[in-house]
TrEMBL record:
Single annotated GO MF: oxygen binding
Source organism: Caenorhabditis japonica
Protein name per the record: GLOBIN domain-containing protein
Ranges of residues in domain Globin: 16-182
Family: Belongs to the globin family.
Keywords assigned: Heme, Iron, Metal-binding, Oxygen transport, Transport
Highest taxon of source: Eukaryota
Length: 196
């Protein structure tokens, strides 16, 4: 018998969103997507870790050194925003498994496109997304919490619920993307071994 100090039934339940968290995620997204949030997320990723340009295939010529106006930047920022829009719009209306399947498939696609993020890059992607989506559109100051602390010590104000909801949501999405990538890598490794 496992002793569970946090009152959770399983590892999977730690990613489950409460109805309040789900509503807070949807409300924050509704505000964020009006700000072309995909561009803000990708811009912040590149500013924090310039290698994200390479991961997303963003290359600029010497004449036009503006990364943010190049075609590849625009395309990738739309992909990020469209994925998040589809996933968040599905929350509460479709089983969470559908969102996870979509994230899993994106992980598989990342394998075939050679987008192999390390753990630090996945954490950066999650942190940037949560910060930018949950920040007030009028403020340049980002909002973040230390998730190493037990969430129950925080007051249950709407901003905290929103941040915790987005942390849980992005954790589950990224977990599935990583799983999709790894499963596809294993499948291809096994296929290579059986050819000889």
């Amino acid at each position: 018998m496992k002793l569970n100090c946090f009152g959770r039934n399983s590892e999977r339940s730690m990613y489950e969103l409460s109805s309040d968290e789900m509503q807070a995620v949807r409300e924050a997204w509704k505000r964020a997507k009006e700000r072309e949030i995909g561009k803000h997320i990708l811009r912040a990723l590149i500013e924090r870790k310039p290698q994200f340009k390479d991961y997303f295939g963003i290359h600029v010529d010497e004449k036009n050194n503006d990364v943010y106006s190049c075609k590849e930047f625009q395309l990738q920022s739309h992909r990020i925003q469209n994925f998040l829009d589809t996933a968040v719009s599905s929350l509460g209306f479709c089983p969470i498994g559908n969102i996870h399947q979509m994230a899993y498939r994106i992980g598989q696609i990342h394998f075939y496109r050679g987008v192999n993020f390390g753990a630090d890059n996945w954490l950066t992607f999650k942190k940037v997304t949560v910060e930018i989506v949950t920040q007030d559109g009028n403020s340049s100051e980002s909002t973040s919490i230390d998730l190493k602390s037990i969430p129950s010590i925080f007051p249950r104000d709407s901003n905290t619920v929103t941040i915790i909801g987005w942390e849980k949501f992005m954790s589950s999405v990224i977990r599935e993307m990583k799983r999709g990538f790894l499963d596809e890598a294993r499948r291809n490794c096994h296929d290579e071994e059986t050819r000889f």
